Amino acid sequence: MARDVGATGESVTVRIPPVADGRLNVTLQGDGLRASGALDVSQAIVQHLKDVSVSIETQHLSLSSTPQPKALQVLADLRAVDAAHPFGTIVLDDKGLVATVAGDVGAADGAERMLRESSSGIWADMQIAIGGDTGSDHTDAGAAGLELAEWIESELGVPVSTNRGSLTVPLDSVESFTAASQAIAEHNPERLRVVLVNKEAKPRFRVGSRAVNTALSPEENAYPQWVQWWQEFEKTELVEVVEVSDDGVAVWLTSDASDQGSVDKAERVAARIADEYGLAWYEVNNRRTEL
Length: 291
What we know:
Layout: E1 2-7, E2 10-15, E3 23-29, H1 35-46, E4 53-57, E5 61-67, H2 68-84, E6 87-93, E7 96-102, H3 105-116, E8 128-133, H4 142-155, E9 161-163, E10 166-170, H5 177-186, E11 194-197, E12 204-207, H6 223-236, E13 239-244, E14 248-253, H7 260-277, E15 281-284, E16 287-290
Parallel strand pairs: 3-4, 5-6, 7-8, 10-11, 12-13, 14-15
Antiparallel strand pairs: 1-2, 2-3, 4-5, 6-7, 9-10, 13-14, 15-16
């Protein structure tokens, strides 16, 4: 079966043959389909599968046959890392993980550290080799991106990495995202995509790779409300990851918050946020509620 779906602004062909011996081999094809988009589409597919081992093949993502529950967690962990250190390529098989990320050795080390420290425990003892791909400074973001990156590095005093025309900016705290995003928006006439990250935040904050509201301008800046969502979940002390998007919010709970009472509490917070901000959906531990 082949089906065209949307991912990161591109048409993607998904080929899913019949299940054979409990195994399902999924192939994704699409011009411009990068690792981030492949992770998004793969998770959307895998979360609806049951009682199979799944393998995934794309130009930038290769996942060998893995039982569905573990595959779903693997994809969630990789998406969390991708939000902070965008992947170029990902190959995961029974020998371990080989990948590249945008940035230097520090970015590669940061990506590996995030995986090692994941609460899933999948990566703790795995063979992992991640390399940095610096490209050519900020040239992949064009002249406007170079100018904005230089302004951010000068005014905010933080290093900026670029990937596929977007800028990733590490900041000291999630709370600082509001003021920083407003300042950056004033100096971003081309409305370039700017992703703010903080690797030490608890819960982790990440922007869904399909979100377009990171194309900052004084008139359009979602970070202030995203920070408010993150703060609401932080108060619960139950959440491991908060992923924000244009029309929804997803959270994953800590390993200590697996009981139904904790899930229900997180869902109440998510439902309240969705109602207040007019969201189309919310998701808790990969269980989505459409509104």
